[in-house]
Amino acid sequence: ECSGRSVEINRTHWEKLRKLYAGADFHSAAFLLLARYRILQVHTKGGGNQGAISRAVWRAIELWAEQPVIEAFASPLNTLASKGRYHSAFADVDC
After folding, report:
1. Residue of 92, 88, 93, 65 whose CA lies nearest to 78
2. Using 50, 70 and 90 to split pLDDT, how confident is the model at 79?
């Protein structure tokens, strides 16, 4: 919570963010990330502007490329790539 504003996140996504984050102030970065993505949501529970591929398609692409690939237009909340292998709209807190 910040200035009376709060954001929600499930435990699985919280743990994923914690694992991906490399900065010093995780809680502040997590709040900023969640607040920014909340603003972009089409409705209150989110997911309205996603055009993601499934994990099976992701694996097929990596098999085809014969190497790990970098995911463009992802966030730490929905990336299928590992740390440092995705690009997001908010690089200041999405690392």
Report:
1. 88
2. confident
